[in-house]
Specification:
heterodimer, A: mainly alpha, MetI-like fold, B: 351 residues, alpha/beta, D-Maltodextrin-Binding Protein, domain 2, 2 domains
Chain lengths: 289, 351
């Protein structure tokens, strides 16, 4: 229930003390949203993955062709699909790592700036969103072309990091801003150097921010197809491109659905893992607060 | 009561509706001036929605989209739409300008007798190149060998892009190997895959749109792409006074021709306006606009005098009779063939 601690006190009391109507009213809209926009589409995908592709796109009529495991058999037959999934995880992992390394100093700088400047600095971080994502990627084409970096795995990672950096900065900043400066002063008084202060206090306290930032970067990167398509070379295909191809170019919804479910399963696995890690961490550190 | 009010409202919206023609079209495929001229002429409104890919348009219709009077599908998509019974037959009596069409572009394999479709414009998938560079390197410009043969590619490493389209690239490879572009023999497909894999290390990227800019600024020296895009790259390079020129040619082994057609959707509410629009676009002056706008090929003979000479005189945009013999149109694949093609394509992408 920690998550709800920002609600007004009386309301929280109502919520917790068995007023079932309030509880329903509060949880219904988000649950409904998740059911309609996540659960139902996922179930449709599951159903689609067991059908046969229609001749004109879509799915073949159920009455005529029935259900089949063909799409899964086709994927299992060839190791390349697993290999592409693994490669996508590698790219997502590297992107997350670089985003973290770049975002941490920025977030720290903003959090330690005078209060009046912080909003302005946060605005600067969000500013790139004001221009269209594709236009910014095209700008990278013009920058990377003369540097002979265009159409390479490096360009893909660079583009991915560039696009997702704000999603790492913002949660980190929100976390770092809340740190009590007294902790650092106390550590300094006790003789801790700058590095020790960072490593033993700031970083462990920032882990919830790191995890939520990592999730906000890692998961979208896994599904991204535009960046590898525009900046990638001849070998830089990711799982997102493969799924997009099945739906938009190849009229093979069942294959696209089964690929997409594989990705969803992998993403949920990562999300569960990060949730467990976050809980363990905050459980340990939160004991004192 | 409520139901009655709703009924009245619906009746009114039918009767009171102004004349609007809904066109589902390619991006940038009808100039604003042409559209404005049509609106003034028919005293109606032309509303456009856009797609950038036949499959995108088909997917949207498959998902149940209605409300479009006219579509502009490429030949293979016309065939699909006819087989799906999605189209409304065209009434030839309402198209007095039909005779303007060049006989070579009538009676296409996908719609003999033009019962459903009226050709509007076409492109050829060919090779665009940096003429200055290729001359310096002493490379030929009229053969697919330029993008498939390591002997040539050695001099072009990292300076070649090919289309990010399984059908187009496989068609080019099949043509180079001496097979028809629409060949479906799995053994020939494997040979084409091997040819592509041998050449791939020399290519910079698979690109469907960025090659226009890359050719025009000199990042890329050879690009596999569409004739109208190559025309734009050439114009862009010229306008920017680059120290080189961009040219394009139809390879001697043959190439893919894509003819886009006007068709009327079966759910069209205004077939009368749709026919008027098609006939309006068949008159030479209006038909010429698309060639002047984007450098598309034009099946309309009466349009030729109205087309800028640098477009009309380009044989890669307007192929002559001998060139036309070497052009062929793609046909849609069966679901099982599509899956096999997709596996081959994925292999090509990963290796």
């Amino acid at each position: 229930m920690r998550a709800f601690s920002f609600w007004p006190k009386g309301f929280l009391q109502c919520f917790l003390k068995g007023d079932r109507l309030t509880r329903w009213l509060v949880t219904l809209p988000p649950s409904l949203f998740l059911v309609i926009f996540f659960l139902l589409p996922s179930l449709i995908m599951v159903a689609a993955s067991f059908r046969e592709p229609g001749e004109f796109g879509g799915l073949a009529p159920l009455a005529e062709r029935g259900l089949t495991l063909e799409a899964y058999r086709f994927l299992a037959e060839d190791i390349i699909y697993l290999w592409i999934l693994a490669k996508s995880f590698l790219v997502a992992g590297l992107t997350t790592l670089f985003c973290l390394l770049l975002a941490f100093p920025v977030a720290l700088l903003i959090a330690r700036s005078p209060k009046r400047q912080r909003d302005f600095l946060v605005l600067l971080v969000i500013l790139p969103f004001a221009s269209n994502f594709l236009i910014r990627i095209y700008a990278w084409i013009m920058i990377l072309g003369p540097m002979n970096l265009l159409y390479s795995p490096v360009a893909v990672i660079l583009g991915m990091v560039y696009v997702h950096l704000p999603f790492m900065v913002l949660p980190l900043y929100t976390n770092l801003e809340k740190h009590d400066p007294a902790l650092l002063e106390a550590a300094q008084d006790l003789g801790a150097g700058a590095w020790t202060r960072f490593w033993r206090i700031t970083f462990p306290l920032s882990l919830p921010g790191v995890f939520s930032g990592a999730a906000l970067v890692f998961i979208p990167v896994l599904g991204m197809f535009a960046v590898p398509e525009l900046l990638g070379g001849t070998g830089d295909i990711l799982i997102g491109n493969l799924i997009k191809e099945q739906f938009l170019d190849n009229r093979d919804w069942p294959l696209g659905a089964s690929l997409s479910l594989g990705l969803t399963a992998a993403v949920l696995g990562v999300a569960a893992l990060s949730a467990v890690l976050t809980r363990r961490r905050t459980g340990k550190l939160g004991a004192g607060t | 009561m409520k139901g009655l009010a709703l009924l009245l409202l619906m009746l009114c919206s039918l009767a009171c509706a102004e004349d609007v023609l809904y066109l589902y079209n390619w991006n940038n495929y009808i100039s604003e001036q042409t559209a404005a001229r049509f609106e003034a002429w028919c005293r109606c409104k032309l509303k456009q929605d856009y797609y950038s890919d036949n499959e995108e348009m088909l997917a949207k219709l498959e998902a149940g989209a209605t409300g479009y009077d006219l579509l502009v599908p490429t030949g293979n998509a016309v065939e699909t739409l006819i087989r799906k019974k999605e189209l409304r037959p065209i009434d030839p009596k309402q198209l007095p300008h039909f005779g303007n069409l060049h006989p070579a572009y009538r009676d296409a394999w996908y719609d003999s007798g033009n019962r459903y479709s009226v050709p509007y414009a076409y492109t050829v998938t060919l090779l665009g190149y940096n003429a200055t560079r290729l001359k310096e390197l002493g490379l030929p410009t009229d053969t697919w060998a330029l993008i498939f043969e390591p002997a040539y590619l050695k001099k072009l490493k990292g300076k070649v892009t090919v289309l990010n389209s399984q059908r187009e690239l496989m068609a080019a490879a099949l043509l180079y190997l001496g097979h028809p572009a629409q060949d479906t023999d799995p053994l020939h497909w494997q040979a084409a895959r091997d040819l592509i894999l041998r050449a791939k290390p020399y290519w910079a990227a698979f690109s469907n749109s960025t090659y226009i800019k890359d050719l025009a600024i000199g990042n890329i020296w050879v690009a596999h792409g569409y004739s109208n895009d190559m025309f734009r790259a050439r114009e862009d390079a010229k306008a920017a006074h680059r120290p080189f020129s961009v040219e394009f040619r139809i390879p001697k082994e043959g190439a893919v021709l894509a003819v886009d057609n006007f068709v009327i959707h079966k759910a069209s509410r205004r077939p009368d306006l749709a026919h008027r629009f098609i006939d309006f676009m068949l008159s030479g002056e209006n038909a010429a606009d698309v060639s002047n706008l984007i450098g598309a090929g034009n099946p309309n003979q009466a349009a030729l005098p109205h087309i800028r000479p640098e477009v009309a005189g380009e044989t890669a945009i307007f192929p002559n009779a001998a060139d036309r013999q070497r052009l062929s149109m793609l046909r849609d694949l069966e679901p099982a063939q599509r899956r096999l093609m997709s596996r081959i394509w994925t292999e090509i992408k990963v290796r």
